[in-house]
Amino acid sequence: MRDCISRALLWVLRMMLPARGRHAAVPVTAPAPAPVSPWSEPWTGVSAKETRAIFHAEETRSLTPEQRERWWAAAFSEIGVDYDFPTMNITDVRNARHEAAA
User: Fold this and answer.
1) Tens-of-pLDDT digits for all 102 residues of the chain?
2) Residue 2 — left, alpha, or beta (φ > 0 → left; ψ -120 to 50 → alpha)?
């Protein structure tokens, strides 16, 4: 009887006390940091004022729509912005002349 009680007591103590040696618990790693929201940083792009200045420039009023579109793309490239949403279908001028002559 004493043997059963001592074994039960030993088993309970082993469960309550931290393990040592070969069967020690694996150290708990820190959880991965939460992803940072891109909205928590200030806007680094072109301001609305700069964009309006490009689209409402006086120089573009006398240009054809194709020339105006190219002027906007050049103005945006000067400030380091990729203007990849053209409002017109711009084709290569050399191909257009070749097709018109044929």
Assistant:
1) 778 888 888 888 877 776 666 665 666 788 888 888 878 877 777 888 988 999 899 999 999 988 998 899 899 888 888 877 666 665 555 555 555 555
2) alpha
CB-based burial, 44-57: b 16+ in 10 Å, e otherwise: eeeeeeebeebeee
Contact by Cβ (8 Å): 89, 69: no
The answer to whether residues 63 and 71 touch, using CB atoms and an 8 Å cutoff, is yes
C-alpha count within 13 angstroms, C-beta hemisphere, residue 37: 3
